[in-house]
Amino acid sequence: MKVRFGLEGTADAWLVTREEAPEAWVQELIDSGQAMFKQEKEAGLVYLKVLQGLGKSGVITQVITANAGGFGGFAQVPLKVLVGEYLVRRDGEFFSITPKKFAKEYKIL
Asked: How confident is residue 101, by pLDDT bands cut at 50, 70 and 90?
């Protein structure tokens, strides 16, 4: 879905779920191996893992953890988005957003 944030910013967002088919842009990430569903058996968590790294040729272009890209940013750093949270793609960057924060900062267009 398309969403608005701030005064004029727009982004793509998907509520991570196992019940519905992902949006096309998320399915492309899954098909390319850049995103996959994982399960942590100990914690009973199911999440979408998105691999990220710096690069321009088909590689996701954002490292989410603080200063994780400070050493050149070539390693892939996983972003965990729990089922029930939102995966947001904004200006080529990916974010994990809780439903509470999503409701406060984003508006569905």
From this structure: very high
Asked if 80 contacts 95 with a C-beta cutoff of 8 angstroms, the reply is no
- pLDDT per residue as tens digits for the range 59-94: 333 333 322 333 444 445 677 888 888 989 888 788
Mean pLDDT across the chain, nearest whole number? 74
Tokens of 13: 């967002």
- Pull the structure tokens for residue 14: 């998907």
Q: Cβ neighbours of residue 22 under 8 Å, at least 6 residues apart?
A: 14, 30
Dist. CA 103–CA 26, nearest whole Å: 21
Task: Give, as one character, the DSSP assignment of residue 55.
Answer: -
Distance CA 20, CA 44 (A): 20
Helix, strand and coil in the chain, % to nearest 5: 15, 40, 40
